[in-house]
Write a structure and sequence with these properties.
The chain is α+β, with helices and mostly antiparallel strands and 117 residues long. The protein has one domain: Aspartate Aminotransferase, domain 1 (Alpha-Beta Complex), CATH 3.90.1150. The chain is 37% helix and 24% strand. It is built from 4 helices and 6 strands; from the N terminus they run H-E-E-E-E-H-H-E-E-H. A 6-stranded antiparallel beta sheet has the order 1-2-3-4-6-5, covered by helices on one side. Strand 3 and strand 4 form a beta hairpin. Helix 1 packs across helix 4. The protein starts with 13 loop residues before the first helix and ends in a 5-residue tail after the last helix. The model has no long low-confidence stretch (mean pLDDT 93).
Amino acid sequence: MNFSDYFNETAIHSDLMNFVRSSVLAAAPQAQEKISYNMPAWARADGKTFFYVAPAKKHLGLYPHAAYIEANQEKLLAEKLKFSKGAIQIPFDYPREKLGALVEEIVRFNLEGNHVR
């Protein structure tokens, strides 16, 4: 799959994926879109990736740098979100306002802290 395949009208959860895409670009308009680890990702001009996303069967997977999760565990727990060292599971019915704010916060955190891969 290429990058745009994840966002076209026939893609699974394309409306949600497009919402995440616009949230990333709102926080980082200069971001380069690419596929990495077989999922949509955004990178800085030097090609270093700062954010990944992929729809799963029962949730949307956000893949920030582990530093974000470490620094924000209490917040994620308060939001009742499932997470691991490197992933956050977003239920498909999670409010868009909260999702957009979370994505933008992750992007800014990763770019400002130089948390890239």
